[in-house]
């Protein structure tokens, strides 16, 4: 057991009330990790009050219900922030209202949050880290907990394409111990309504592709309403454009009404993009990043920088041949 896991286990034992938060606009990894951790703690310590908080997302109802709390009345509680490197993106809580904060995240470091920060950029997902924690600390994972963790890893690793040997080893232990049938739970991740498929077709049809292999699209509110999807759908579809021959990097932009800014989701099949994203109020992994932009004029600057990165990448590849 590594020192971070040991310290987190100790803090969980000490607190009667624990709140688990994640980032706004959750993806499967974010929401699955917080619900799985909440349920695993409650399974281990039935007398504790454990809450998973944040804005509910209808398409993720199968992962479990979220909790409603009065944030300012839990001053003696422990807050665990999952899958969120920066404070501004934490959904549903004010970190100043908590006695102690723990951060568990697989993104590169951005904001200092708590007394314990377990950051592992080599992990495919936060669900992988929670799986490691449960196995190392000998917490039990029932069928529902194991299914959530497995789906979170599958989603963030793009069906294990972005995973390591450690990821596969942890999933093997999880499946063996919980006896889940993975063939039964994949549809929860990939079964989609027709309007979402049509929305994806719209994105594919309207992608702007440069000669350097950079693709982009701004998705406005009218299009969101036309296809009957929510603003977070574009974020969840971004990984679906990973196997287009002419595209090596792509970005989808949607407007977040709550935060009053543009959300840019960026992916790559070659160029390193997190350094570019960090220059535009963003960050992330080398080939999976995002940015938050307030002025729409700055979106074009980000696009130009990403296109230039694609050009440099292609030139470097030619030199290697």
What attributes characterize this protein structure?
single chain, 321 residues, alpha/beta, inorganic pyrophosphatase (n-terminal core), Diaminopimelate Epimerase, Chain A, domain 1, six-stranded mixed sheet, five-stranded parallel sheet
Describe the structure.
The chain is an alpha/beta fold. The protein has 2 domains: 3-189, inorganic pyrophosphatase (n-terminal core) (Alpha-Beta Complex), CATH 3.90.1640; 194-320, Diaminopimelate Epimerase, Chain A, domain 1, CATH 3.10.310.30. The protein is built from 11 helices and 11 strands. It has helices at 3-14, 28-44, 126-136, 143-156, 165-178, 182-190, 194-206, 221-227, 233-237, 274-278, 297-320, and strands at residues 17-21, 49-52, 78-82, 100-105, 116-119, 208-209, 214-218, 249-256, 261-268, 282-284, 288-293. The strands form 2 sheets. A 6-stranded mixed β-sheet has the order 6-7-8-9-11-10. A 5-stranded parallel β-sheet has the order 2-1-3-4-5. A hairpin with a 3-residue loop joins strand 10 and strand 11. Helix 2 packs antiparallel against helix 4 (143-156). The longest helix has 24 residues, at 297-320. It starts with a helix and ends with a helix. The model has no long low-confidence stretch (mean pLDDT 92).
